Predict the 3D structure of the following.
Amino acid sequence: MSGSLKITHLNSWHKKYAKMVEFAGYEMPIWYDKGIVEEHLAVRRSIGIFDVTHMGRFIFSGSDAENLLDYLTTNDVKNLKPGEGQYSVLCNERGGIIDDLIIYRLEEEKFFVVVNSANKVKDEKWFREHAKGRSVDIKNISDITPQFAVQGPKAIEVLNKISEVNLNQPYKFGEIIETKLAGYKVYATRTGYTGEDGYEISQLNVPLSNPKPAVDLWEKILEAGREYGITPVGLGARDTLRLEAGMPLHGSDITEETTPLEARLKFVVKLDKKEFIGKKALTEQKERKPSKLRVGLIMIDKGIPRPHLSIFAAGRIIGETTSGSYSPLLPKGYGVALGYVNRDYKQDGTIVYIEVHGKKRPAEVVKPRKMLKRIREKASQLSPT
Amino acid sequence: MKVGEYVVQEGLYYTKTHEWLRVEDSKAVVGITDYAQRNLKDLVYVEFINADEEALDVGSVVKAGSQIAAIESVKATSEVYSPVSGKILELNRKLESNPELANKEPYGAGYLMIIEPTDLKADIEKLMDDKKYAEFVKQEAASHE
């Protein structure tokens, strides 16, 4: 593999067990020995651990930190209390999505911000351009902050074995806790990209030049989860898990050419707040209603949908897929997709046709947020019990 | 024989696109190699279609080097190409419901189809034998390190 790729603290560990690929400039595991399907099902049924160190992590501090973040993002940062986090998007003036991100308020004037790996250079530039003349300090702590996601129904129980505090109570989804795990200082956030309960763990002050504490924490979590069959999970299953959960991937399902209103992310767009980049364009789009909307698509017949396939209804093209794969919860051969359709076809239960290998195959429309629940229902109907 | 973790079965003929051919009673049994299945991992669906996305069936005529199937792994669709020209005698339809057969027994129960060849001798001359294929796999594996 090319020597110019960036690596994470766990690189040597991954290389022992995983097939490695290039992703967003990093050498990352795509799957370990058991493969995508087993890794996926381990997270759905029990617990899995992901190295997500390739993501971008920033600390914003200072008296203008809140104002800057509130101006750059569509959600209401002013409403965020210390210890809380919020999903949000960075928009351009046209309302197109530069990136999606999570903002956590650590203290009154201190925020932890996590962005996508593929966008972190672009985002940092955007942050700094708009920080000029404001009293805010932006630190890129990506390289000294290894980050692991621990996800699945057993995640909290396992983490509690090595946690200083009880991570179950009183912490709610989206919250951030500054605590210790196996003796290491971390930001633990009750968030994830799988549709399951769990935490994302950012380990503080671990430079790449001395990766040992990161490897040790990773192995301590594996040890704690052994009784539940914890498995390391690569980028392959990370993608199928988020897809089943209807969560968008920036660069595929959301881009600078799509708005949060089209992407069904209206819940992070607070048009009533004072001023933010993209407000005008989004306000206008809300008034005339977006012509296309993001939907989840569950295949009724066999055939695996992929990105960039045409979606048909009433004999004409009404949309296009943006992501698609086999759904490991469903029997072999059945897939799910995300895509955009003409708004007339947004209703749950609408049947549309996706052209897979030259054949138009029926798929059921479902709201992205309800996709995982609907896949589970389908799974119980399709597989013999 | 084994090349690293990859099994190369002796006595078969191989393509550069990682299909194998076994001659049985002057018929050609065709499948994908262990190298192919290990790199695709988790096979989830198999469709017997040609490059024009038309369904192939028993009796369909195929050409050496032409697409005879699309194999879906979780991550991607991969085309399978015929090592011989001829007429399809049998399709392994078990793969449509149990694609993992090609993961578990790529040289056995996971075979793809049986073809009645039109010019077996000429086609085989263009393929690699087991030793040459083992060497090829070694190079392929090294270039993906």
User: Anything to note?
Assistant: The mean pLDDT of chain A is 97. The interface with chain B takes residues 1, 19, 30-31, 35-37, 236, 240, 302-304, 306, 325-326, 328, 332-333, 357-359 of chain A (CB under 8 Å). The two ends of chain A are 45 Å apart (CA to CA).
